[in-house]
Amino acid sequence: SELHGSSTQIPQSASLLTDCPPLGLETLKIDDFQLHASSMRHYGLGPHRGRLNIQGGLYEDDMYDGGWCAGRSDPLQWFEVDARRLMKFTGVVTQGRSSSDWVSSYKVLLSNDSHSWVTLKNGSRDLIFSANREKEIPVLNLFPKPVVARYIRINPRSWYASGGICMRVEIMGCPMPDPNNYYRRRNEVTTTDNLDFRHHSYKEMRQLMKVVNEMCPKITRIYNIGKSYNGQKLYAIEISDNPGEHELGEPEFRYTAGSHGNEVLGRELLLLLMQFMCQEYLSGNTRIRRLVDETRIHLLPSINPDGYEKASEGSELSGWSLGRWSQDGLDIHHNFPDLNSVLWEAEARRWVPRKFHNHHVPIPDWYRSTNATVAVETRALVSWMEKIPFVLGGNLQGGELVVTFPFDRTRSVTALREATPTADDHVFRWLAFSYASTHRLMTDGNRRVCHTDDFTKEDGTINGALWHTAAGSMNDFSYLHTNCFELSMYVGCDKFPHETELPEEWENNRESLLVFMEQVHRGIKGVVRDVQGKGIANAIISVEGINHDIRTASDGDYWRLLNPGEYRVTVRAEGFSVSSKVCAVGYDIGASSCDFVLGRSNLSRIREIMQKFNKQPISMRQRLRQRRLIFYIVSYNLFINVYWLLMNQIILASFLTVH
Asked: Which regions span the lipid bilayer (predicted)?
């Protein structure tokens, strides 16, 4: 009888026991031409699609389906990987197709020339490994001992009875010594940054943030914005020359990550970024010093620590969705109130701008009720976003290489994808391009697409609703409820890359992270004051031709992101006269100053005088009523006088006639 190899759903300890990282099917280090198969159902289910966690499109078609499927269902089928050099293979990870096909057992064959194959054995018998029992959860099988070869084949022996032979695969392996260093030159990235390149548990993340704070106490501050469902604090670190306070005229910037707990690359990138900025500030890097001195930066690396703990149980090779949601099963990134519908309905009723503002759209009362289906993490984010006058923000996501910008929801409720631009579409496109164009891979037309969409055709960016519609996104909420322009950066094809991949991912994203932060200084800025020099809070800043306003912060300062050009800017505040001026935005980084001084309006002065003498100001309706009453009294008196005058004349005439 055949012996079965041991299998597991990839606990972290098992993954580490291999001492070898994934070969790179999921991360695309393995090219399409290195993948082969005995047959395929059609091209979209060819071997190039047999990558762990690869996703099919909205509509699976002949080009992009979610896995490799054999053209026939028999024990002669195989899936092959050519490592292109000798490797020490230690294990195989398998996953079903993203529909309902999976392999339940398989053999492993190895070769050095692709002609002569040796089946992996346990003693004298062929090993048959137990594989998947459903389509999504990956299963890791470790070999009894490492095996050295160039080629590796997976030969399915049994599969889901109601389906066919379909797989998504990752191979665990270490490269053998390379005397010519070809593999090292081609695949490894060296970095001079003295950073901690590893995955961090919640406790390790807190400790690392503490280390950064102790290293740079004058420019950092650790705080939390609330707690997760399981009670873990949502820690953020502030980086500024005066941490803990908002400085007049200094914009606020934020990066967040980990709203989907299984998308951990963004979490590690923010931990690397805070280390990097601290070290470079201390070393005198003028670029970093200028950024820190002129910006208040907030980094929140783990919005969903509960989800991360679930994903970390499956280590780097967890499934596509394990840990994505909050502990109570909510998608935090799309758990915000749908303010798009509120604004669009007001526009349809022609309430904007007289009865309804085109900005700072209020949150519906039902959303704030305790019975609303809102994650505690989302409530913490909303409170944080309302408390601090953020100007620009980016949330780091995983599983793709693209930057998305609002709106994320289509106007048409029936459209699955449709371009839905904001009033600031040109600004958003520039912001998205600033990140994508400086990323090492996002705009590379020669790279392989992660799953189905080739975003390089649009310079690595896309309108969120044109990709796929989603109501209640963090991006749309931020734009409609606050002054902050928010975008999503999908920073890698692999949601949970192996630790060995982190240096390369840091190099891919480092410049983009810095460049995007610098964009907070693009546009106009200023302070709105009264004639006594006191800042006016909540003043409305309107830009001619752009149907979206912003408001001043509590000190009267504001920041308005704009592309280069000349703009007529109008400021309105309750109790003050309206003021307008033309403000110019240059091409160099650095917002143009555009201050305003507002005088009190005549109506406001009248109200002040009347209040001074303890008199209540009379409303327009009251005035009309008083005028009508006076008119009626005067008219009545006039009628009575005329009546008696006529009566007297009649009596007098009668008397004279008689006599």
From this structure: 629-656
Mean pLDDT of 434-442: 96
Beta-carbon contacts of residue 72 (< 8 Å; ≥ 6 apart): 39, 165
Query: Tokens 């964009």 label which residue?
Result: 519
Radius of gyration, CA atoms only, the chain: 33
Beta bridge partners of residue 37, listed in sequence order: 79
Which amino acid, one-letter code, is at 141? N
Q: Which helix H or strand E contains 429, and what residues bound it?
A: helix 425-436
Q: Which of 430, 427, 431 is nearest to 543 (CA)?
A: 427
DSSP helix/strand/coil, 489: strand
Q: What is the pLDDT of residues 107-150, one digit of tens each?
A: 999 999 999 999 999 888 999 999 999 888 899 999 999 999 99
Q: Tokens 């610098």 sit at which residue?
A: 518
Give buried/exposed letters for 396-425 (b at 16+ CB in 10 A, else e): bbbbbbbbbbbbbbbeeeeeeeeebebbbb
**Least confident among 37-51, 271-285, 370-384, 610-624:** 610-624
CA distance linking residue 335 with residue 3, whole number of Å: 49
Q: Among all chains, which residue has been given the structure tokens 């910006």? A: 295
The pair phi, psi for residue 64, each rounded to 5°, is -130, 85
Dump the DSSP string for 355-421: TS-SSSPPPPHHHHSTTS---HHHHHHHHHHHHS-EEEEEEEE-SEEEEEES--S-SSTT-SS----
What the block records as the tokens of 349 is 């009723």
Question: Do 400 and 490 meet the contact criterion of CB atoms below 8 Å apart?
Answer: yes
User: Do 82 and 36 contact (CB within 8 A), yes or no?
Assistant: yes
pLDDT single digits (tens) 506-556: 999 999 999 999 999 999 999 999 999 999 999 999 999 999 999 999 999
Is 474:333 a contact under the CB 8 Å cutoff? Answer: yes
519 class by beta-carbon count within 10 Å (0-12 exposed, 13-18 middle, 19+ buried): buried
Pair 169, 154: CB distance under 8 Å:
yes
Q: Which of 548, 535, 553 is nearest to 485 (CA)?
A: 548
Sign of CA pseudo-dihedral 254, 259, 261, 263? negative
Tell me how far apart the 2 most distant CA atoms of the chain are, in Å: 156
CA 402 vs CA 25, 331, 456: distances in Å: 20, 20, 8
Check if the beta carbon of residue 438 is closer than 8 Å to that of residue 394: no
